[in-house]
Amino acid sequence: MNNRKNRIAVMACLGAWLLGTAIAFSADQLASGTLDHLHFSDLKLGDTIVLETASETYELKIIDTHRVSAMANRIKTGSTSESLGFVRLLGATSGKQRGGLTLVEMGVIRDGMKLELGLGDLHSANRFQTEPITAIKINN
Predict the structure, then answer these.
(1) Is 84 left (phi over 0), alpha (psi -120 to 50) or beta?
(2) CB atoms closer than 10 angstroms to residue 70
């Protein structure tokens, strides 16, 4: 009987620890304003996505939620802003794989991965990849 009570007590402590950790992690995510991923389906017209990489910041102002397109600016660390103009957001990628193929998780931006964009259109010659993303923020 005593062994059963010990197991219940241990499980209750473990459950309380897991709940506390989840709440603390959520509060930390909300406090910093950064996301670990962003689905394109969550975007609204006029939202501005701010993506940070090791050496650049991208500002993407959503102008079409159906085609998921934006007007983009690239800001190099310690430098001025450069307009990339009209871009189509494609999705998260790790870059070129063996054999030269690029796999893209369509419809999402993920922290730690690159974002593939179509500069002006979707032709392969006009594709561009960011550096790996270190922070994702959204301003409504």
Answers:
(1) alpha
(2) 25
